[in-house]
Design a protein that fits this description.
The protein is an all-alpha fold and 53 residues long. The protein contains two helices and no strands. The chain has helices spanning 11-17, 35-47. The longest helix has 13 residues, at 35-47.
Length: 53
């Protein structure tokens, strides 16, 4: 993405190309994620704007 020229691209469209990162989330401790682990993942994705709140 570093070489991609975004000049002239409207801001709303530019947002689609910008990198988005969520907060670090620990790996699940067991074979089946707990409710807390799953909710932490969802919160991270929502806060990063990758899924709707």
């Amino acid at each position: 993405m570093a070489d991609f020229d975004m000049n002239g691209i409207p801001p709303k469209i530019r947002e689609l190309f910008e990198e988005r990162t969520g907060a670090a989330v620990k790996d699940a401790a067991g074979a089946t994620p707990t409710k807390e682990e799953f909710n932490a993942l969802l919160k991270s994705l929502r806060d990063a704007g990758l899924i709707k709140k």
